[in-house]
Amino acid sequence: MGINNWPEGERPREKLIQRGASSLSDAELLAIFLRTGVVGKSAVDLARDLLIQFGTLTRLFAANQEEFCAIYGMGQAKYVQLQAVLEMSRRALQEVMRMGDALNSPGAVRDYLRLLLRGREQEVFLVVFLTAQNRVIASEEMFHGTLTQTSVYPREVVKRALYHNAAGVILAHNHPSGVAEPSQSDRLLTDTLKQALALVDVCVLDHFIVAGTGGLSFAERGML
Q: What is the pTM of this model?
């Protein structure tokens, strides 16, 4: 039975209008994005297929074009639409960070870093460069590694901090394993970067690890 034949209060679009987006399940939200189904399957059915295939929204968002288009009913147009939605979300969060004190809006910073880094199959090391008022100047993915480690060069981080005339930085990287707890290498790297950046009067304000649907802040753990 098509969605149009469902009771009005159970149709995803009408349900969102009446109760708000937070009342919808992952499948219902995806169904609104997909808009239409295919012969024999509603948009909700297709959305459920996607979630079964990828397991989570995080893995779905991280899927490449080949993986996404391999699902029955999907195609290049839907893949392009999804990537556009994700990029708009990233840019909106980046705007929120740029407009205020990054340390006074940790939720926006974390949401941005999670959206950018979670679900990545490689380790990615990212640096957010800040003014003396903790406003965001830029964020850059600086190093990419294997599934287990990333080679990070402190000299390059210092060079980019000087280029942006940054007064502070927030470091971030992901753990594809899904375990947020910092390794000994993570701790040593943080200390090394702190020392290198201190030589040019740049302060490391936090180091955030993104893992699975969560994350860990070095600053909150008292590890800085």
A: 0.67
Residue type, 7: P
**Distance between CA atoms of residues 83 and 197, nearest Å:** 35
Distance CA 31, CA 26 (A): 9
Other beta carbons within 10 Å of 117: 24
- Cα–Cα separations (whole angstroms), residue 148 to 113, 156, 181, 186, 188: 19, 21, 14, 12, 16
Residue 65 has pLDDT above 60, yes or no: yes
3-state helix, strand, coil in the chain (%, to 5): 50, 15, 35
| CA–CA separation, 83 and 72 (whole Å) | 18
Neighbour tally for 33: CB within 10 Å: 14
CA–CA dist 128, 3 (Å, integer) = 44
Phi, psi of 169 (to 5 degrees): -140, 155
- Band of residue 4 on the pLDDT scale cut at 50, 70, 90: low
Q: Residue 188 to residues 10, 21, 184, 185: CA-CA distances in angstroms?
A: 53, 43, 6, 5
Q: Say if CB 190 and CB 224 are below 8 A apart.
A: yes
